[in-house]
Amino acid sequence: MGDMGHVQWPCPTLDHPGTPWLYKDNRFDTPSGKGQLFATAWRAPAERPDDEWPLVLCTVREVGHYSCRSMTGNCAALQSLADEPGRVQMNPADAQRLGIADKQLVWVSSRRGKVISRADLSDRINPGAVYMTYQWWVGACNELTRITSIRSPKRRKPNTVR
């Protein structure tokens, strides 16, 4: 690529040759040269589990894939490692309480929508939570969510997904 005449970011000036890595010499672009971390005050989630909706949905990234799989979805090596698309992972105790068997097809519903998925029971999943990866169009866990307008003023990220 070097022969192609590219310039790699960051380039702080027009005549800068580029930098092959961010924060060259371990120096951040701050007055002190150190990275700055900010903490925000904790706020309770906008929604909590209740009798009608007893579980918390966590939408998570599948290991090995980037974002929505647009760049990694066609990689044969990653496809061979992929789990079944659209599965819902849950703790066996929650599944037993709800009468759900491992690998059973189930409806996953929220206050906002409903999708069909295959149950994947695992002790790795916290009781009271279910996990779905958002990279797959199958299972469509995003049908269960809607981003609220409640945003953290510092992070500018949603407080919750509804």
From TrEMBL:
Keywords: Metal-binding, Oxidoreductase. It comes from the Bacteria. Gene3D superfamilies: 2.40.40.20. Coiled coil: none annotated. One of its GO terms (cellular component) is oxidoreductase complex. InterPro entries: Asp_de-COase-like_dom_sf, MoPterin_dinucl-bd_dom, Mopterin_OxRdtase_prok_CS, Prok_molybdopt-oxidoreductase. PANTHER family: FORMATE DEHYDROGENASE H (PTHR43105:SF14), RESPIRATORY NITRATE REDUCTASE (PTHR43105). This is Formate dehydrogenase H, selenopolypeptide subunit.
